[in-house]
Design a protein that fits this description.
Helices cover 30% and strands 14% of the residues. It is an alpha+beta fold. The model has no long low-confidence stretch (mean pLDDT 81).
Length: 177
């Protein structure tokens, strides 16, 4: 059976989700550097890391396990877990990158709304609790159909690399943000 092809029971297979479920790329609480997927982004290429834009203290990256197409994460470069531990300058840049992400997503994908948020701590739902990240999730009327409810799957109409390329191309230059 091919991945993503319904079988005789009308199942939709999403084997890529097993990496997330199994905790792949999930660092321990204090594991900065190569053990943290957000810390690794700083040193790789934008295309390989799915980075859409880089600031001085923070960056914007596509979520590898998105809730919707265009689901972005705004992360400080510094490996810090708690929002209250951000420096004032980091907090401002995370906020500004979040605002720009919303503008770019509106221009590129015309969402009807957004979910914004940070899950602080594993018990609060943070998949990677050790490195703070702000979710920017574009939403469209009717984007939650039977798949996430019944099939516990989400159908995404575009490959992550293609979404990254479209958003990065639309991101304003640093002096225009």
């Amino acid at each position: 059976m091919l991945a993503g092809v319904p079988d005789g029971f009308e199942r939709l297979w999403t084997p890529h989700r097993m990496a997330y479920i199994g905790g792949e790329n999930k660092p321990s609480d204090d594991q900065a550097g190569p053990g943290c997927p957000f810390c690794r982004v700083e040193h790789g290429s934008d295309e390989d890391g799915l980075v859409v834009a880089r600031g001085t203290l923070a960056f914007v990256v596509l979520n590898l396990y998105p809730y919707n197409s265009g689901h972005l994460l705004v992360c400080p470069y510094r490996h810090v877990a708690d929002y209250t531990d951000l420096t004032p300058d980091e907090a401002v840049e995370v906020a500004e990158l979040t605002r720009t992400a919303m503008r770019v997503l509106r221009a590129v994908s015309a969402p009807h709304g957004f979910n914004l948020g940070m899950n602080q701590g594993e018990v609060a739902g943070a998949g990677i609790a050790a490195h703070l990240h702000q979710h920017v999730v574009p939403r469209w009327a009717g984007d939650s159909n039977f798949l996430p409810v019944v099939g516990r799957s989400r159908a995404l109409p575009e490959l992550l690399a293609d979404t990254r390329a479209r958003l990065a191309a639309a991101w304003p230059a640093a002096d225009q943000a």
